[in-house]
Amino acid sequence: MADTVTISPKNPGGRPRNPLAAVITAQLENKRELFSDPLLSLRECSTALGVSVATMHRLVSQRRLRTWRNGPHGHHKIRSSELRKFLQTGGDV
Q1: Domain boundaries in the chain?
Q2: What 3-state class would DSSP assign to 78?
Q3: In the predicted structure, residue 31 carries a pLDDT above the cut 50
Q4: Region 34-54 average pLDDT
Q5: How far, in Å, CA of 37 to CA of 18, rounded?
Q6: Does the structural domain 39-88 have CATH classification 1.10.510.10?
Q7: What are the C-alpha distances in Å from 5 to residues 8, 36, 60, 91?
Q8: What is the pTM of this model?
């Protein structure tokens, strides 16, 4: 049976072992931030705002909401932080 090897990006002192480990650690921290801010569908956003999905499409086409797409013709997704920012700036629907 093979021994398992644990790879730690940091030395016991807390400093990265090498530059590559530091880059990987930073990328993992960035991914943790992304996963804490989920992507919402237009339908989920419309339900939260109490408007129709067509209204959400209009807001997206007017570029009043920043969206992400999964692929060149994918569905629009809105980060929950973007929706919060839209509401805080008094985004009229």
Answers
A1: 39-88
A2: strand
A3: yes
A4: 88
A5: 30
A6: no
A7: 10, 30, 49, 53
A8: 0.58
